[in-house]
Every structure is written in C-alpha cells, then in structure tokens.
Amino acid sequence: MGHRATYVLVRDGEWRLYYSHWGASGLDVHLLDGPGSATRFVTAQREMERDAWLDDVWCEGAALVDHDARELLFFTWHLEGYVHRRAVLTVLGRTWPGWRIRWAYDGLEDVAAYVGADPGLVRSARSRADPEPPATAEPEPADPGEESALAVTVADGDGIRAYAVFEEELQDLLDRGPVVAGQLPRAALTDRLDTIPAGGLHVDTVRRRVCAWTLLYFAGTAAAGPRRWPGWEWTFWADRYEEHERAAAGALGFARPGLRPGAALLAQRLERLGERDPVGDFARLTERLAAQEGGGEIRVSPWTVAHTPTTPLPEERARLREVLAALAAE
C-alpha cells in the first residue's frame, strides 16, 4: 500500500533527493501554499542517496523545486481531470510569483533529466522492454462527456472526422501507427465533447502529419510519436487542446469549464488532505486488522512510516485562501 512520491530540491548548485511513501495523493495540496511551505514539506521527508530513485511504475507523483532557477517541475497521477489540473496550475501561478511552473510530460524521467541523473535509474523493466504489437481491434466508443476519453480527428481527402474513444493510454493509440485512421468505429463519431478529455490525437493522412496532446504524461514524448510513424511529421502539443480544435477546422469542439468548480475542489482537498497524517491512519488500520485476526501480528513494510506532515505558516495559508476565493469569483 502507499502513494509513493519523489521530491528533488535544488539549491546553491546542489540537489537532494527525498521520498514519501504517501505523498503522491496530496502532491498538489503540498505545493499550493507556495515555495516556502513546499520546501519545508520536501525537506521533512526522507532523504535518499542520489541514485535511490523510484521507477516509473512505483512513482505516482514527483516535484522538483529549484531555488536557483526559480522553477517548479511536477507531475502526479492524482488529478481529477481538466478542471482540477487547470485550477492547480492557475493557483500555483499566483502562489509561486516569479517562478516558472512546468508539468513533467515525461513523468519521473523529466525530473531525473533535469538534474542530470541517469534516465535508466527511473525506467522500469516494462519501460525498457520492446513495445508489444499494437492493437488491431477498434477502440471502444466513449461518451462525449467522459473525462477519461481521448479525442481523435482524422483529416483525409474526404474532409475531417472527429471521434471520442476509450484507450488505456494515449500511447496505445499512437502505437497503432497510421492504420489507426481506419480503425475508429462509426459509433464514436462526434463533433463536440462536453468536457476537456484526457488527451487527443490528430492524424492528417494527406500531409502525413500526426499531432498529440495530453493532460497526463507519457514516457518519451520526443520518441513516442515517430516510433510507429516513419516518414510522418510529429508534433507534440503538450496540454494545448486548442491546437487540436484549430487543426479540426470546426469538426470538433470542446466545452470549457470555468475556474469555479476547480477552486471548490481544491478547497475541499485542502481541508481533507492538507495536514493529514497517513502514517497514523495506516497504523490504526493495521491495528484494527490485527484485532480482527484475533490479535495476530500483521507485518508491514518499514517504508510505510516514510512520510512527515508539515504545516504552512498562517500568512501562507491566508494568501492561498485569498487566491482560491478570487478564483471562485472568476
């Protein structure tokens, strides 16, 4: 059990690596109060040797705080769609003034590369393995309001068609290669999605161009597209879904939720996760389970105690609440 997170602190030309067994589920909350609070949280966690990285299977979130360059680089599995992600990035832009805020589209590999660590330290056996043969069955149609959907547009000699489909990862669609243009089910045809989905793919068979964007991340963004698309032009749009709309030329539109729902969600998460003690919660859980087993011993990993909550300064929390209130009014 756990929600493992990696943290890197860069200061005075040096970097240090930290670990929390429970930090990933609240990684956004631990950053919201600004660089001072985030730095105190990071340095309260367990410091690791500089080659003791998690890999990309076990790490559910990471944050790098560079005081020298005033840069924050992060990712987490624990965001609830576009509304949550947009609110987090908007708040960080206000509570980290003068800092560059970046999403790690290559996940943990981006963080390791930032400090010059060997990327092999964070690549799991699954990541190093040769890719499996691509799927050939039609992707499953998705409801246009489903946030986990993927938007796909195909431009060919007959115009532009748009689809909403389910696939476990955007990479799975890319790995199908150019044949994906002919594998999309008619039942998935749409011209509008009622939310911003998890990602999208644009395939232009005339210009031999493929473009993708994501709200999540996938390893090897620079190489992911060309792997199955030899001779095609590859463009990664990061999270800029607007580029997809422009490429679709009216064939696909996305609904744009306002900031108020995201502000409310962050306020709720702040109350629920802000100073929670997951180590204590887990200890109480194991005690209850042991009692149910008649008092027997339950053995747990010693890493489950690797998390230390911290408390922001009153003025940091007050500033954050002002930002959330302003966001809710926009």
From the structure above, extract its key features:
single chain, 330 residues, alpha/beta, Nucleotidyltransferase, domain 5, 2 domains, 32% helix, globular
What is the number of E strands?
Answer: 14
Give the DSSP E fraction (strand runs of 2 or more residues).
Answer: 15-25%
Arrangement of strands in the largest sheet: 3-2-1-4-5-6
Query: Distance N terminus to C terminus?
Result: 39 Å
**CA radius of gyration:** 22 Å
- Characterize the biggest β-sheet: 6 strands, mixed
Indicate the structural class.
alpha/beta
Bulk shape: globular
Average pLDDT reading: 91
Strand-helix topology:
Layout: E1 5-11, E2 14-20, H1 27-32, H2 35-44, E3 46-48, E4 61-66, E5 71-76, H3 81-95, E6 100-103, H4 108-114, H5 125-128, E7 140-141, E8 150-156, E9 159-166, H6 170-174, E10 192-193, E11 199-204, E12 209-214, H7 221-224, E13 233-236, H8 241-248, E14 253-254, H9 260-273, H10 278-292, H11 314-329
Parallel strand pairs: 1-4, 5-6, 8-11, 10-14, 12-13
Antiparallel strand pairs: 1-2, 2-3, 4-5, 7-9, 8-9, 11-12
Helix pairs in contact: 3-9, 3-11, 9-11
